[in-house]
């Protein structure tokens, strides 16, 4: 949770949807800047914090959101400055139907550079050799990050994998799955969507085109329709752990094509299929790189030894090279972002 000990600068209420359309109570979230402009299906667990969920007056909620935004981004005066080093935070308000009704960053003035251009130039653009170099350089930090909190990352993954192999599709399986893959929350799925998602999983549906279309077509209260590329890839990975997972970190590291949000439904689905195809292609290339192969062996050995020292049951047979690579690349992006932010402070 974020702590603010001083609020600065009050701003007027604006950039909200029609007040007659908003339904209380309202919820306030602080969101890591990485997701503020990246069109993702979800906010990952470490990237958002719930501030409060029982605000009945929108003006009170906006006042608090603006104060939080000012305190968390005290030296950011323009949108370009706010996005420059990926070190800021957005504060957003959602109504009872999970509609985003206010984004605090929209009060900042723009300058000549567009936000999208600034974000692209600030994202890491790594060749395969550079990825190997970064993995080698950050080896110990990646090990530490992926084994923190009593091995929470791998523990949940092993539970999901074991239960799927044993066909134990009970409520605990669903609970751990939703927690690990961040399927709850304002940018996750509604209950009807999750029900259909698990039906697709249990029936071993592995056609990503069909999965995207089915999940998009579900009416779940007032939730907006979405093409859940990230969740679809996680479903397919559960069926076949040699299939890679799409998420923000991996997309940024591998410089995958951006998700588009204009055009017809077929055009947007084709865009997601292109992204997923490129994801699979990049993983295939990396997993045939001798240096990457050697690194994966090194990571496995260190994880096994550290798990033994810390009395964690490491289940090597549950972890494919695809998933191990996914985990260390996911961790690497977090470290690159963190280190770049510290260098600018």
Summarize the structure.
The protein has 345 residues and is of the alpha+beta class. The chain is built from 15 helices and four strands.
Describe this structure in words.
This protein is of the alpha+beta class and 345 residues long. It folds into two domains: 19-121; 125-343, no CATH class. It is 53% helix and 7% strand. The protein is built from 15 helices and four strands. The chain has helices at residues 33-36, 58-72, 79-83, 115-122, 128-137, 139-146, 148-165, 171-180, 191-202, 208-216, 229-239, 248-254, 265-287, 290-309, 321-343, and strands spanning 26-32, 48-55, 89-94, 100-103. Strands 2-1-3-4 form a four-stranded antiparallel β-sheet. Helix 6 packs across helix 15 (321-343), helix 7 crosses helix 8 and helix 12 packs across helix 15. The longest helix has 23 residues, at 265-287. The chain starts with 25 loop residues before the first strand and ends with a helix.
